Amino acid sequence: MTVRIGTRASKLALTQTQQTADKLSAVGGFPVELVHIKTEGDVKTGSLSQMGGTGVFVAALRDALLADTCDVAVHSLKDLPTGAALGLSIAATPQRVDVRDVLCARDGMTLSELPGGAKVGTGSPRRAAQLRAARPDIEVLDIRGNVDTRLGRVPGLPGNITDEVVPGKSCDLDAVVLAAAGLERMGRLDTVSEFFETNVMLPAPGQGALAIECRTEDAPRQSGSTAGSNDVLAQALAALNDDDTRLAVTAERAVLARLEAGCAAPVGAYAFRKGSMLYLEAVVCAVDGTKTVREKKATDGLTEVGATLLGIEVAELLLAAGAAEIADLAAS
């Protein structure tokens, strides 16, 4: 049996999918092959938020699963819409890596060291809003492109292939903001000039985590259930799952779901387990950075139901504090 693993063809997607495929193969003892799937987000140009948010990277992979073109798909969990996909299940959430956002700036500068009027690029309304809240005097620009393309917009970063200033293409920005997780997986953490702590910039729900999705009939069978499977693939998927990561991202995604917020809405959330408690903090920002509401709460209900209820409770606190009035939560 060869397990076919669907992936986008970007360098980051291929890297994290290959790492996951290697672990699955090692645990399950079966060969794997990568199946490249072209998604709408890879084909279209323009603002990611206007295209429908990060969910545009997911639909084609899900279609490939349902069409039996592949057996498993690997997603960046923050790209997954919160709604259930009929016939599909998140079979595993491997252990999460660094959740933080990072600044990659020229001359090794931190956010506080950037001069007034500095140009900082990001494709995320969430990052843009929190950047503007922290530094209202800088210019935040919407950018697209893969990790290497974005890093190439900042002069002097390690690994960049040119120092020529070409507006919109290379060396024309003072900094870009990216996820630490992606840079870590690609071996490019040497470009980072500052790691943002969560009190400055809360990450996207699910950031730093992967979701391994498969057809529901192939997913690991839960205790007391007749749904799913106990075959070799299901057992390997179950072995890759990390319970603490699953609890944390469940709480974070429940915030988004209760807010009825899309992937492109300016919402940040971060949950983590410590001892017998699960802690969650979330933020909703006006895109211009002028208004922010932030709430946090904890629970000792260390189950998926308990994590979901925690996310709903924090979302209710955000709504009560005016979240819906300061942000376009329906941004898809």
Helix and strand pattern: EHEHHHEEEEHEHEHEEHHEEEHH
Mean pLDDT: 91
Number of strands: 13
Tally of contiguous helical segments: 11
The computed structural class is alpha/beta
Radius of gyration: 20 Å
Distance between the termini: 38 Å
Strand residues, percent:
15-25%
Q: Strand order across the biggest sheet?
A: 2-1-3-10-4
Describe the global form.
Answer: globular
Oligomeric grouping of the chains:
single chain
Largest sheet: 5 strands, mixed
Poorly predicted sequence stretches spanning 5 or more consecutive residues: 47-54
> Percent helix among the residues?
25-40%
Q: How would you describe what is shown here?
A:
The protein is α/β, with parallel strands linked by helices and 332 residues long. Helix content is 31%, strand content 21%. A hairpin with a 6-residue loop joins strand 12 (277-285) and strand 13 (292-299). The two termini are 38 Å apart.
